[in-house]
Design brief:
Its EC number is 2.1.1.56. GO terms for molecular function: mRNA 5'-cap (guanine-N7-)-methyltransferase activity; RNA binding. By secondary structure, the chain is an alpha/beta fold. Helix content is about 35%, strand content about 15%. The strands form 3 sheets. It has a 7-stranded mixed β-sheet, with helices on both faces. A 4-stranded antiparallel β-sheet has the order 8-9-10-11. Strand 6, helix 13 and strand 7 form a beta-alpha-beta unit. About 30% of the residues are buried.
Length: about 450
Amino acid sequence: MPAFDPVRDAVLNSPVTPSQNIAFLKSPPQSPSIPLTRRPTGLAALLNADPSPRTSSITHLLRNDDDNRLAAAPAIRKSLMYNPRNRISPADSVLKPMSQAEMKMYKSYEGKGAALLAKRKRSPEPDVDPEQPPAKKHAGDVGVVVQHYNARPDVGVAQRETSPIIGLKSFNNWVKSVLISRFAHPALAASKVTVSRGTGRAASSRGKVLDMGCGKGGDLTKWAKARVAEVLAVDIASVSVDQARARWQQMRAPTFDASFAALDCYTEPLSKAFSPAKLGTPFDVVSMQFCMHYAFESIQKARCMLENVSRWLRPGGTFLGTIPNAEQLLQNLDSLPPDATDLTFGNDVYKIRFEKRRHKSMFGHKYWFYLQDAVDDVPEYIVVWDNFVQMAAEYGLHLKFREEFHDVFSEHREHPEFGPLMVRMKVVDANGESAMDEDQWEAANIYIAFAFEKR
């Protein structure tokens, strides 16, 4: 058996045309000019992408009649070193050991990809109060409102003083204080809910309050000054509820007990948020400040709201609140040119944009509201006053008071208690000069204050 010849084996196993061309392996051809049609199998031919036709370098090795043919064989190209273009890091950076600072940085490093993945991951579940229902996701207009108020930061007292509409905010707070003093205080004084916290009259607390739509707890200090015994606060925006709870916890020696819950009081019963023990004793006062109009998206929501107010309010108790003045808004809407396509009015402080000039139903007449440094274009709904009063009567709630904010000011600015309160709350200075400009004063007049009594 002949010795194994790798070159001969490669040639024998290479495809050739015609087949008789491989006969020379047994007896070399007499004429070296006969070309082989064998495909190139040489390493140089495989590595060098030269499209020009050439005879295989193998044939030069097989032909013994011309030793110079070996020198004429194509040379193998030299291998190119890895040298990519657009290099991000220096070529020798991999060989350098990382410093301690780099090791510390990369230990917790998150690049762009990790940041994108982190957004898709579920955030860790917060601590949940077992007595409270799980947070509910909201869609549509309700979702817009919830997202807006959850995103609003809870600024401190010093930062609130720098608000561009601090005069309007102070005036609105003064109106609420007047409303609470006139109608909530008598109901609290007649309450059977009393708590003794020590000696002296100031140490005793009386009355129970439901703050529906408590927001971030802006009225907690008002209830503290009213010396209530207990407050139940509820709002649809869970982040705002957490901030209200934190504000109560940070109060200097709170004089009243408080419970907080996130709940949509316009679609769900109050009993879903508070235990029967909490609701066992009825409320003396139910307060809804700047939020009741959201319930008038539909008759179902309005009735659910009134049911939550009336069911847990004792006979003789007070239901009070503040809402936009529908008559004022509709008058401004009607004053726009008949051919106007943009149904917007207001000034630099507030803007109101209606979607429709006319609405067939008493409910769902939507507009978008903007108030500088307070409300960023959220959907609200017209409260047709006469319709609201009629519905409230069906739930045993009867009107005692209704006034526009401007009229509240005119009636109470010379009052021996409420006049000096305006100075203390910085609505006016010691000389009686208002902190509001004309635009803020116009914005204040789009609201009314009301009070009902349950019979």
